[in-house]
């Protein structure tokens, strides 16, 4: 009988260990519905019904903040970022149900446990970063102060009860084409350069950034846009080569004036000059037009703007330029495409060190998506 009892207790012990392991495994699994997860990229994968993603772990004292970068707003931009209980219903946007809260990008409203939102902050668009966090001291109290940020600046906060199983980062989406990049290890309160904001793994693709911020493959102008000297410049880290000889730019938002330029420039090109304006560069410029369109429509409609090619290999007295710039003694034919069709060619001498992909912007709101390594070309 004693042996039987020992064996019975041993089986119960093994069963209990297995149950604990199963519970721990569940606790460390991310949950999602109508969301396609590819690494840190979340994209909507439904048919006009709400999709929701819940992170595998709640926020903690040591990891009390996360950020979501909007890669594409899709058809309606109905993207929500916030905190929810572990077993939140995945067919509801974060913030709609009790014990959840979320900042909604399409209308800038805060939803705090019900389906009626309150005006909270600005609307958010492609390239914007929405952050959400809980101060470390809140974890010692029953009530949590939850704050939200937009592009690194605090928007506001709200107080709500701390869920017994913790508060889990969550993202909701509701229309075709919506896509975000989530950073569950983001840190809040780091000092940032006012003129250059680099926020993810695509940082190493760019050698120089001036008045331009990067979010994934998106570049956004963050300069003043008041004078010809307020050019925002982004230059790739590596020059074009025989193995990588082509890059593409998609205009996501033309901004106020559509002063967007793309082309090639020498490595030490002046930071406040559009490519094509100064020596050692060639560029294609999209000028302002009443027919500029933005948002998702750019994927389906051809842009109708006045396009100008700029080329400059003459000596100039531009302040800050190295007038000893030399050429390699060879010339190349630079070509530009629009919607997959070649629209122009220009023979240009290659600067010493090569030609670097360069993008310039000059008016508020301009956003472009850059592919430095497209499959075609």
Strand and helix layout:
Layout: H1 2-27, E1 31-33, E2 35-38, E3 41-44, E4 51-54, E5 65-73, E6 80-84, E7 101-104, E8 109-112, E9 118-119, E10 129-133, E11 143-150, E12 153-161, E13 168-173, E14 178-183, E15 196-198, E16 206-210, E17 212-215, E18 218-221, E19 232-236, E20 248-254, E21 260-265, E22 281-286, E23 307-312, E24 327-338, E25 341-351, E26 356-361, E27 366-371
Parallel strand pairs: 15-17
Antiparallel strand pairs: 1-4, 2-3, 3-14, 4-13, 5-10, 5-14, 6-7, 6-13, 7-8, 8-9, 10-11, 11-12, 16-19, 17-18, 18-27, 19-26, 20-27, 21-22, 21-26, 22-23, 24-25
Q: Calculate Rg over CA atoms.
A: 25 Å
Strand content: 35-45%
Question: What is the name of the CATH class of the largest domain?
Answer: Mainly Beta
Adjacency order of strands in the biggest sheet: 1-4-13-6-7-8-9
CATH superfamily of the largest domain: SPRY domain
CATH architecture of the largest domain: Sandwich
Low-confidence region ranges: 20-27, 191-201, 288-308, 315-325
Shape descriptor: elongated
Quote the distance from N terminus to C terminus.
80 Å
**Count of DSSP-assigned helices:** 1
Whole-number total of structural domains:
2
Largest sheet: 7 strands, antiparallel
- Could you tell me the mean pLDDT? 80
């Amino acid at each position: 009988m004693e042996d039987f009892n020992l064996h019975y207790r041993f089986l119960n012990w093994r069963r209990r260990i297995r149950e604990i392991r199963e519970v721990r495994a569940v606790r460390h699994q991310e949950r999602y519905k109508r969301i396609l997860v590819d690494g840190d990229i979340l994209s909507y994968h439904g048919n006009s019904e709400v999709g929701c993603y819940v992170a595998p772990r709640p926020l903690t004292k040591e990891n009390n903040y996360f950020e979501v970068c909007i890669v594409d707003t899709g058809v309606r931009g109905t993207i929500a970022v916030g905190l929810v209980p572990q077993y939140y219903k995945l067919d509801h946007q974060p913030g709609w149900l009790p014990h959840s809260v979320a900042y909604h990008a399409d209308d800038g409203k805060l939803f705090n446990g019900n389906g009626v939102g309150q005006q909270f902050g600005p609307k958010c668009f492609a390239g914007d970063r929405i952050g959400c966090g809980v101060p470390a001291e809140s974890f010692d109290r029953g009530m949590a102060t939850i704050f939200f940020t937009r592009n690194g600046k605090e928007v506001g906060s709200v107080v709500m009860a701390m869920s017994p199983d913790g508060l889990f980062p969550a993202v909701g989406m509701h229309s075709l084409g919506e896509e975000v990049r989530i950073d569950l290890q983001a840190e809040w309160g780091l000092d940032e350069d006012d003129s250059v904001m680099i926020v993810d793994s695509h940082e190493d693709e760019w050698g120089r950034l001036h008045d331009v911020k990067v979010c994934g493959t998106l570049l956004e102008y963050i300069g003043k846009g008041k004078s010809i000297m307020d050019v925002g410049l982004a230059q790739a880290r590596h020059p074009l080569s025989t193995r990588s000889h082509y890059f593409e730019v998609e205009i996501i938002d033309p901004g106020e004036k559509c002063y967007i330029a793309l082309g090639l420039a020498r490595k030490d090109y002046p930071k406040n000059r559009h490519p094509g304006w100064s020596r050692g560069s060639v560029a294609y410029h999209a000028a302002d037009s009443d027919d500029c369109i933005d948002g998702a429509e750019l994927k389906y409609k051809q842009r109708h703007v006045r396009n100008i090619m700029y080329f400059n290999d003459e000596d100039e007295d531009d302040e800050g330029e190295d007038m000893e710039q030399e050429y390699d003694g060879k010339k190349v034919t630079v070509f530009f495409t629009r919607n997959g069709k070649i629209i122009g060619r220009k023979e240009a001498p290659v600067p010493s060190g090569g030609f670097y992909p360069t993008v310039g912007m000059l008016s508020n709101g301009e956003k472009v998506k850059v592919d430095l390594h497209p499959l075609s070309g």
